Amino acid sequence: MSKIFRKTLLAVILVFGVTANGSALLSAWLLNRHLTEAVESRGRGIATVVAAAESGALAEGKPVSLQIFLEAFARLDGVGYVAVFDRQGHVLAHALSEGASASVPLTATDDLAGAATAVREVRLADGTHYIQVAEPLPAGQDGWVVVGMETAVIAASMRGAVLGQEGLMLCMLLVAVAVFYVLAKTVTRPLVELAHYAVKIRDHDFSAVPPATGNDEVGVLARAMRSMAGELSLLVSDLTRAVADTTRELKDTLAHTRAIIDNLADGLLVVDPAGRVALYNPALLAMFGLKDDTVLTGRAASEVFPEELAGLTACGREDKALSAAEVRLQNGGTGKALATTVLLAEGAGLRASTVILVRDITREKEVDRMKTEFISTVSHELRTPLTSVLGFAKIIRRKFQDDIVPVLPGSDGRIGRCAGQIRDNLDIILAEGQRLTELVDDVLDIAKMESGRYEWDMAPLSLAEVAGHAVRAVSGLVARKGLALEVRVPPDLPGLLGDRDRLVQVFVNLLGNAVKFTDAGGIVLEARQAEDQIRVTVRDTGTGIAEADLERIFEKFKQAGNTLTEKPKGTGLGLPICRQIVEHHGGRIWAESRPGEGSAFIFTLPLCPGQGVTVAPSCPLPVDACQEPVEDLGRRRILVVDDDASVRRFLEMVLTDAGYAVLQAGNGVEALRLAAAWRPDCITMDLRMPGMDGVSTIRALRAEAETRHIPVIVVSVLSARERRETGADAAVVKPVDQEALLATVRGVLEGHDTQVRPCLVYSPEGSRALGSRFVMCPGAAMECSDEAELWRAVEGGFSGTVLVPASRGHDLDLARLAGMPDIHVIIVPD
């Protein structure tokens, strides 16, 4: 018997049973109601007849005939008892049926009061149940006729009727089940066969034969399943062959990949998101001194490998950027670990795992160390003779120009031509010596940067100030080639964290390259904020760079173009050094160019959060807008301020011969402008000038943040009162003694004093701390830890040099101190 048949049969039985029982109950209720009404009606009829007959018998005085009349009614079917009561409730006559109970009530009851017919149910103590009908006697005869009808007749009739109906229902159920069984078997048999057929198809048994069916719906379903089975057979066959081929290829690929991984010279480690080892190769075990049979799968990477390597697993999970670290290998070797994040399939989804590749770079590190030491040694060995060559060449050029050329007999003959050649040759020697020095410096710098031994001086800085310094350094080159230099560096750029000198080097190198390769047009230096970084662009109108060389030019000793047929215009180290500097600051540098359309060198630097803004140079270029600065070639810069041109020329000659780069200003306004634009290292100031005098100029310099810290040396004919009011750092009285001037300048700039002068150190650290950094204190120095002690010493006749730290100079009356006779004040950095 199929499940469908069983379920349907159970449903038929339940429905038929509920229906049959419901019908039987309804019929029984209706039959009981009708029988009860019939019994009541019969009882009323008997009571009415008895009442009519009772009145006649009572009137004639024949109680015996009344008794006989009642007994006749008592013998009727269904009558239990008949009784007649008078007005007082006494029984006048009564009759009981043969089966009546002895406990039949023959006394009047309260409900007989009234003139209407009364019907009620009477249940006796023995369980006998009667329907009692009470009929009042006719008028003139006070009393009642009571007839008790047995309900057993109703129960018997009900029992017979219900049993007959239930039997009929059962017969009908059996017939219905038989008929349904025949019909259901006819329908479910092909369905059961189709179900078995479907199961065989599910199990890929396509050789199974579908059942024979007719043209009804089951037949249509059977034919459709037969057609689907044929198509599925073809599809499964093709899929089975494809799966077999794919499985074979996958096994081959896995075996090939496993062989590659096992034979990698580098160590491979794959770590899951929980930090547990998921995959590794034998090379990794050998690198860290683990046995070949060591099982690492499932173990925490931090338990097995060094902290540096385990730390890369966390870096790899944070983002997909490549992370690198050096790790210590077995036997003191060094390895370089590279980590990245990959998405690997796991179940129905993907998981992020960290893949780490470890390469043994012990030999490369040793070679790099040897290379760095070799370059450092060679660079230092080259610098020593270069210093002598450049030094003696400068001396020879100066002596030749100052002492020999003036005594030569004329300049038109052979001697004059020789003198000119000598000057040209000396200039070539100096230029090439300087070029060779720059090459040595570049080689040494890049060697230190690549080896990680370069010392960086990272501090908050203003990019506008850095750019201004670089522009001033290359302005002479720009002016000599007649180019236009446009600076678009906003003064309110956010602050950066970087090495000022190295960033200046980047600007100078990019601007210098633009000048070298630009013959006409101009150069644009632009800087702007782009989200969380500053983007700097140096654009020129030069010859341009081929697309194939845009990345090549950032390699060491590589230049654009053909260096075999074209003359190189540099060492090929400037751009690689720029890349090293920019990348160390967390930025990126690249070039954009087309041949014949100029070039653009772009680099980015990350912002330093929380830093304020600084002011850009107050003398923007083109260079023609300002006085042309001198080419300082790395020398210290001194601004000479005096209204007397002859004095300015004299001071320039003295300072230039001493190795300083000098720029002149004829008044206070011009001095302020040049000081902000050129940023000299020191200023010599005349006090008595027309317009803005020296004292006002010094105060204006001290009021600006860009020029506040530039030391000022007063060179003037001044009284003691004037010297106390200047606010300068040192003073030289006219007429100027050359040695005194140079000693003062050197003392302010480098902390050197050629004269042996007594020293007074105003610092809690004492002379030991300052004397270890400066040679201006040849012997034991006096020490003053507080201001009162300092004034007692200088007012008590001290004559010599007073060293004041910059941090304590703000609270000290420097003008008064510098105005004291024979006192030389030098402000030194803390």
Give an overview of the whole structure.
The longest helix is centred in the N-terminal third of the chain and has 58 residues, at 3-60. Helix 1 (3-60) packs antiparallel against helix 2 (63-74), helix 1 runs antiparallel to helix 3 and helix 11 (500-516) runs antiparallel to helix 12. The strands form 6 sheets. The chain has a 5-stranded antiparallel beta sheet. The protein has a 5-stranded antiparallel beta sheet with strand order 7-6-10-9-8. Strands 12-14-15-17-16 form a 5-stranded mixed beta sheet. A hairpin with a 5-residue loop joins strand 6 and strand 7. It has 21 helices and 26 strands. Residues 562-568, 610-630, 752-756 and 766-776 have low confidence and may be disordered. With 830 residues, the protein is of the alpha/beta class.
Strand order of the largest sheet: 2-1-5-4-3
Query: Could you list the spans in which at least 5 consecutive residues all have pLDDT below 50?
Result: 562-568, 610-630, 752-756, 766-776
Mean pLDDT: 77
Relative helix content: 40-55%
**Through-space gap between termini:** 107 Å
- How many strand segments? 26
| Shape call | elongated
Radius of gyration: 62 Å
| Biggest pleated sheet | 5 strands, antiparallel
- How much β-strand is present in the residues? 15-25%
Structural classification: alpha/beta
Please count the helical segments: 21
